[in-house]
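Reading is simple: the token line describes the chain's fold. The lines below illustrate.

. . .
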Amino acid sequence: MERFRKRYEDRVSGIISGFDRIIFRGVLRSISYPQGMDIWLSSRGVLYKNFRAYVLKLSDQIKKQAEERARLEGRPNIYLQSSRESKEKIAQRIALKDQIKEGLICILSCVEPCFSYTVSRDRASKKLRLGYGQRKCLHLYFYYMDREFGLMHVRVQTWFPFMIQVYVNGQEWLARAMNKERIEYKKNDNCFTAIKNVERAQELSDRLGKRGWVRFLNGLAKRVNPLIKDNKLSLRSYYWTIWECEYATDVMFKSAKDLRAVYKGLSRFAIEEFGSEDVLSFFGRRMDGRYKGWVESTYKRGSEGTRVKHQMDGNSLKMYDKADSVLRVETTINNPRRFMVSRVTERKDGKKHRWLRMRKGIADIGRRVELSLGINKRYLEALSVLGEIKPSHQVLDSVSQRIEKKGRVYRGLRPITAEESRMFAIFLRGEFKLQGIRNEDLRREFYGEQKQSTEERNKASARVSRYLRLLQAHRLIYKVQKTNYYRITKKGHEVMTTSLRFRESDIALLAA
């Protein structure tokens, strides 16, 4: 990301990363699956034939508390005929009209799809059975003007298993945090176009990933669901997961003109040049036999701007222009199990750190931030290298001359020849960008191994070793300490990508 900042330092005023939109989902684990629900009903002495009446009684408690809350605080309690109406816009209008600075804005209710329980008759066994599936029920939306998060909402399902959804906005939280510290900024819609003290703003933004979310979310749950405070029901507290989460890196350009000057080229380059291997490398994966998923990249132009989106295994990476002067790169992790997290686990020989699948639970929110930020950085880094604007001779001339290093003379490179360019293309493949490339990898890709004798493989390996030393002498690659892997330097990226682009250029365009 520093390379991107340096590349456009005359146009960029700052870069800041942080949460955009976060949706938490709370479930009562003891009744969140059919077997658990069955056990819970048995412990309450509720028969299947009385299930509906029993649930209606509990559902009424949730609705009556909401009505009483709205009455006591003098706030609107509105039933919406259609769930398609924008509840956020309705809440915004009410907040503006009534000048709500803090507290409850309104309660909105509507019938929406959900997953819940029903009791039906099994024709084969002629018995009642408990089923779990999609149905519709009444949902209550509590809209607040929160002291920390601004406009937010809590949605509660009024039928078993009483799921809760909490929506907060990380950008609004940061704005209020900067207000407390009197940091000057400019904000347009849901992003910052300029910040006076970007370094301090980034420190504040990082706090959100370390926040004690459980206490905050449990407090909200108690406000909207009176059943969890009833000890006789033994529903306990909610288990919270991150249902949707967007982590954005915003590059704030000094003006809309500055962003327009570069964005068209960046977006076209991203969709035309970033292949599946590159997208996998952004997500920290490699294209090998173990990967069985798919990668999709789309380019969309609309009235609000141009968006490039890469999707992989339910997770996505987007780049788009926002608020005229902000380049936003945003990672959304909807399928966390594609990533690993280090956790302490109990073993027979004691506690040990192990790499395990990442969970949706908020316990792994710190790792989610680390991964999302890493993805955004790698994307911007790739854009900064591949989008470098320089005359080709400035890049290629320096490596085309003989050089002397430690008393040894090395030939100049021939960067636009077929053999050299083929080597460069192998180095730049996405699967080798993360860990690096070995002599064995380069030999196998360039020479192949079919029907090769041991002597032929040794000769090929020696040729590759000499070539690696040549690239090291020209400072295009470096060797990772204590490994057999080589990685590309910044200069190497410039030389290799420039030579490949030069070979692929249309002669008619060059002569025009």
